[in-house]
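Treating backbone geometry as a discrete language has practical consequences that deserve illustration. The sequence in question and its structure tokens are set out directly beneath this paragraph.
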Amino acid sequence: MKNKSNQGITIFIEDEIKKSYLDYALSVIIGRAIPDIRDGLKPVQRRIIYAMHDIGNLWNKPYKKSARIVGDVIGKYHPHGDAAVYDAIVRMAQDFSMRYPLLDGQGNFGSVDGDPPAAMRYTEIRLKPISGELLSDIEKDTVKFIPNYDATTQEPEVLPSKIPNLILNGSSGIAVGMATNIPPHNLDEILRCLIALLEKGDLRFDEILDIVHGPDFPTGGLICGRKGIIEAYKTGRGSIKVRARAFIEQKKNQKSSIIITEIPYQVNKARLIERISELVKNKVIEGIEEVRDETDREGIRIVLDLKRNEIAQVILNKLYKHTQMETNFGIIFLAIENGMPKLFSFKEILLRFLDFRKEIVLNRTRFELNQAEEKCHLLEGLKIALENIDLVLKIIRSSDTAESARKKLIEKLQLSEKQSQAILDMRLQKLTKLEKDKLIRDFEELQKEIRRLNEILSDDKKVKDIIKNELIQIREKYADERRTDVIDEVSEINLEDLIVEENMVVTITHRGYIKRTPLSIYRTQKRGGKGKLGISINDDDFVEHLFISSTHSYFLIFTNIGKVYWMKVHQIPEAGRTAKGKPIVNLLPLQRGESVTTILPVRAFEEGKFLAMATRRGWIKKTELMAYSHPRSNGIVAIHLEGGDELLSTHLTTGEDRIFLATRNGKSILVKEDQVRPMQRAARGVKAMTLREGDSLVAMDTLKEGGTILTITEKGYGKRTETVQYRIQNRGGIGLTNIKISEKNGNVVNAIQVFEKDNIVIMTNLGKLIRIKASEIKIVGRNAMGVKLIDLSESEKVVAAQKIADDDTPA
């Protein structure tokens, strides 16, 4: 701020900063970063092409040093650094950066590996033939010329482009507060769309999409899905997913290789390979044996050799997830129109180009008309002179000077100054009969041409036909095949999608070991056969569960703290028939003190099925199976527990089952499932049974028709009781006596429904095991104490009793 006493002007710094910053922002937007909607070029690109045209550095002339071009550009048109100009030249010459390169480079112009180009003094360039379409008719007053930065020469405001360069080569730039990111497209598709717009006058959006399938990148690749394309084309903004093109090559030794032949646009190949190697080293992606770059002048070829028996598609999916083999390209159709940045839809860009071409054609026609009229005017004067040749010769011979002769010709023959001058400049050979006839023919041809040009200026259809014919010619000359394919949306490929569906025998031991074995290895045997050993386990363990499930089936694994985990059958370690498997706790992210209570096989999550859960403190809850259909790696809450309660057991139900509950102190209750209303997944539930002090639930089962209730106690006693002795009661009651307990038989360990053919295993705290048939246990009343099933030492007690899974079943 200047002092008023010095006759200065007071300026507030906020206003000055605001004004200066806005001026700077506008300068960056208009003068550097954002392309023009008409020719699709940024100022530096336009100046490079015009400077090369100006010195005759054309496609059919010898190359010139890049440094020479850079010098001309910064000296005449672009008052910025030479590095910025050379960077633009390099990009315009790279066939992996531009879909249709505008410059023909000779020398090192960089690579897709990110290698820098050679210095400008070593490289040479010239215009590509397609650049001629950008400059066509520039000498015919088609575009406005403006003073250069120091007003010493003129430069075009825009190039009279015959091609929609903005959408063909795309553009990217970051200005102040805005950015543009326009992907390149296929010339054949774009020109066919423009021709259709000219022929029909308008196109529906779906008609445009039928012609233009989407962006077409110079590096090829795959665009996954059309949703992002549609959004961007409609609104001017969108995002598309671009994937590398890869295929799987099978080898003879049960090995395979992933071959990558195309990578996403603007991805650095060397860095991509480094990233893959890093992921392999850190074991984020396992199964890759070797990474090789076999790229040559024929094209990109990255080879990933896989280890034996690895599933290539799964590894490929991980590569898409963790590397730049899959990228998102954010589309922003931002360009300069009338000196201001504006967001365009795809159709608007095409229409703006056609409007621009109409303007160019009309300007060119006016120029040609002026030229034709001027030439016709001169020919008309020569024609008059030939018709009056004697008078003309007399005037010329009698005149002392050319000026007096010119004035006399104007006066005598009613000619203009230009016509009279043309007569004086006429050579004597024009007086021959042949030259006279030719002059008359030329005059008539010019009159026809003038009529044609006037018709173009007055008929919009003729203008459109001219544009259409020009587009057809360009299409025939430069059209090529698409490089980037648009495929359907690709969902993430899980291992399951690639696993052949096959029935597996899944065994789970009481000690928590789990494995799966293909059912096919158990050959069918005749009745009375010896069977095959299904598992080899320690003396203190037994097979508690045996399931025959598909590789695509689920296991829901419930724990004592009320959580549930998911596991697909194919995720269970496969092992031989005699192996015991792996501890299930090693396959799940269990917390300290968390243990598995129930494992349920589920083929599919379906409506109308429920999970019933019971807790140690007598609570019961029923929730629809579908509520558990969205797995998480660290599990989800299956039931809300309070006050140190634990989840005891979980069963898959139909909604109409009978649920049997038994307590530690010999009580039991049988309730209908419909007494428990369905609840939310995280609910606590309702009271299943009123427990007396010191009592707790030890068992829950769903009863089927027939069978008996087997009850086992701590001191090795057990009994079976017919289910008809357990009448259905209302939920929440104290229940009925299930077994008479005393010091002699001890508390209840388990109570389950069994059938005559079932086998029972009883285990003690000292690791002793006994296996007995259910049919050998006596059926008695509810109030009986039972009979001794196992002899125990003084300090020994029963800790578990289960139906054994018949591991010889798949014989």
User: Anything to note?
Assistant: Residues 224 and 487 are 5 Å apart (CA to CA). The first strand starts at residue 64 and ends at 65. The mean pLDDT is 87.
